[in-house]
Design goal:
By secondary structure, this protein is of the alpha+beta class. It has 2 domains: 4-187, no CATH class; 284-360, no CATH class. Helices cover 36% and strands 21% of the residues. It is built from 15 helices and 15 strands. The strands form 5 sheets. The protein has a 5-stranded mixed β-sheet with strand order 11-12-13-14-15, with helices on both faces. The longest helix has 18 residues, at 334-351.
Length: 362
Amino acid sequence: MVDRRQVLNFRVRAQQLDRAAGTLADTTVLDIGVQDTGPDGSRWALEARGVDSASLSAEGLVLLWTVRGAPHLYRRADVGPVVAAVAPFSDADAAKRVYDAARPLKAAGIGVVAALDEVATQMRAIVTEPTVKGELSGRLAEVMPEPYLRFCRPCGVVHLYEMPFRLAAVRAGLELRLDTSPPVLERIPDFAPGEPGDRFDLIRAYLRLFGPATPKHVADYLDAPVKEVKARWPQDVVEVPVDGETRWLLAADEAALAAAGSAATRLLGPYDLFLQAKDRPTLVPDAARAKELWPVLGRPGAVLTDGELVGTWRPRKSGRTFTVAVQPWVKLSEGTRRAVAEQAERLAAYRAVTLTGVDVAD
């Protein structure tokens, strides 16, 4: 029997949250993609794994709309296999990933994968130079037929359904220009889809970084049907009982599950990969704490120490000054408080602001 602490310790090591320094080439989370949401997004996640974000640029990184339609950061050298890896497994999978956009397409007899390809073709024809999302959306609405379009109440106009728009962009060979809001899309230089291989296979990557896990965990992460994930489940896995539930782990990682934990302390961003696991009760067994960490709106960051999530944190910025407010779930030791303060200093440096204090609630 494996307990949750062993699972969390395994993930801390697998996601390299215990290392002091690293490079893009040896940072494993870039194989599955690092979500870039909010000011403490993908590059802060890389900082937490020992990568100096000040040295990063568009030459080595590429931002793509991929899993769940969210923007994710990858190594630019991996674009080909990544694009292949994030493609829907089938038409049924594509239909689930595009949500309500699938209904009018099906009613018109249009396959969802074929629809994504058609949108991608039109996108690539339009984006011959860097193009703001709104402009691209407007021009697509002029050339796409009715099953692809909807009336958007907030905008007051007719445009493409959002998820087909996002999922087709990568198929069109389009990237998101870093640090643009609203997003600017542009062509990926020398774009050519490749083969995903084991390293970028999303099911294997999930097991490698979030194991032990079940097919439902992986399906929920991808927004894919469980049936599709089960049909592609790796053969080189072992069963692992976790608190009475049968899960699976890549056989090559079985020995690592028994290794010792890490005392490293990190301030994880709200959408850090560690917090994206789909077995939330394993991460945070207490329902009230889970609700605090994953509210419907306005997620806080999480304090990780010794392989355990021990509280939440929020930034308080005023001009060029910055305070980190920590809401602990347990009594923090003096050593942990010092480590949290060190991480807050690092976060302030990352944000290029002056840290004025760390407020730890009693």
